[in-house]
Structures are given as C-alpha cells and as structure tokens.
Amino acid sequence: MCFGCFSCSCMRPRYKRLVDNIFPPIPQDGLVKNNMVKLTFYSLSSPEKLDRIGEYLYQRACRDLSRKRTGFVVIAMEAMDQLLVACHAQTLNLFVESFLRIVQKLLESTEPELQILATQSFVKFANIEEDTPSYHRRYDFFVSKFSSMCHSNHSELAVRDSIRLAGIKGLQGVIRKTVSDDLVENIWKAQHMDKIVPSLLYNMQDSRYLEKEANSPEPEEEKNSPPSLAETCIRELVGRASFGHVRCVLKPVLKHLDHHDLW
C-alpha cells in the first residue's frame, strides 16, 4: 500500500509536487517558505511551466474555496503573488490568466476578507510592468466589481469602510494597468466611466469629509479614509486623461451631480 502511494507520488509532474509542498498540513502554519523558494527557482528556471503552475494553483484554490478552507486559499493567493513578482518572462501572460481567474473567484465570494485579499493581489499585479502588453485581456468584470464594492453598505462600519477602500484601490489599479498596458482607449469608454466616476464621487460625499475646514490639517486616519482616497484616485484619473478624454470624465460627473441634486 505504501509502495503504491509512493509510486503515485513519484509519477506526478514535478511542478505539481512543488506546488503541493508549499501547503502545510494545517493552514495556520502559513506558506512553507523553504518550499516556496524551490517553486520560485523552478519557475525561473523553467518559465514554460508557469502556465501549468498557475492553472494548478487555480484548481487547488477553487477546490479549497468550495470546501470553505479559507486558510489554504489565502496561501494559494500568497504563492501566486510571489510568483507574479518574481517571474518576468514572455510566458508571464499565460500565468496572469490563471492569476486573474483566482482574483475574480475571490472577488465573487461573499466574504469581505477574501474580497479585500483579492483586491490587494490585483493592486500588486497592476503595479507590475509586463514585457509584452496583452491586448485581448479585458477588465470589465473588475471595473464592475470594484465599483460595487465602493458602494458597500455592510452593517459594520469598519468592514464597510474596508470594503469601500478596497474598491477604490481596485479601481485605481485598473486605471493604472490599462494605461500601462496600452489599453487606454478601453478605460475611457462610457460603460466604464459611468461606473468608475460615480463610485468615486459617491465616496467623496461623506459628510465628515465635506464638513472639514479647507485649511484644517488632515488627520492621519482621514488620509486613509474612502473620501480621501477617492479624491486622490479621481485626481489621478483626470491627470491621465488626454485632452480628448477629459469629456469622458466630465460627462459622468455632471450626471452624478444631477442625479443627487448636488448643484
């Protein structure tokens, strides 16, 4: 019996064995760092295996997610993050597809913790400059999901603010990624701007933010508040807009002012 199990283990592809080894017996122990180093080295040495590694990690994460084994899902996401940062190759595009599928899966979860985790991973991805742009990649789902997170009405104030902050950071990541990926035209479409701009303005309407005196110093906690971050994000959005795209931002702003009687 033991010999049979040993044989099956040996017959498994090496990349699968390396991936399996980064997971501890219990999730509380966290990512097995020594084995993660081995997996990263293998990925750098054999970049053609990146897509298979990504797909296998995605399958494991989906299985653990369906079984409510959140700890192992977090470990899978952490491994994906590390591989994404470490591996710079032409095959990275194939790995990114699996990465974004995991992020999407976690964003679709009803657990705020997983939604925030997925957003953090997406932001890390958005800050990576890829060697070759991916013109076929679409961010429609992420624009819609992050925009909806900006409107979170969770019963707990702290959780609500955390989800809204994550949503704003996610939108900021989408904006940065689409610009750096030469997909600028895509983000300026009305279908995206009509979600992004109102979501940011909605958070800027916070009463505490509006009542603050113009010359009063901004407390540290306010700098990390949804209203403050939303303002930073919309400033960045306008700053990245060319002369021809400014109208794409202004139109949803005017619509928002009309709908909420903010004139």
Automatic annotation (TrEMBL):
<comment type="similarity">
    <text>Belongs to the EFR3 family.</text>
</comment>
<dbReference type="GO" id="GO:0005886">
    <property type="term" value="C:plasma membrane"/>
</dbReference>
<dbReference type="InterPro" id="IPR016024">
    <property type="entry name" value="ARM-type_fold"/>
</dbReference>
<protein>
    <submittedName>
        <fullName>Uncharacterized protein</fullName>
    </submittedName>
</protein>
<dbReference type="GO" id="GO:0072659">
    <property type="term" value="P:protein localization to plasma membrane"/>
</dbReference>
<dbReference type="Pfam" id="PF21052">
    <property type="entry name" value="EFR3_ARM"/>
</dbReference>
<dbReference type="InterPro" id="IPR051851">
    <property type="entry name" value="EFR3_Homologs"/>
</dbReference>
<dbReference type="InterPro" id="IPR049152">
    <property type="entry name" value="EFR3-like_ARM"/>
</dbReference>
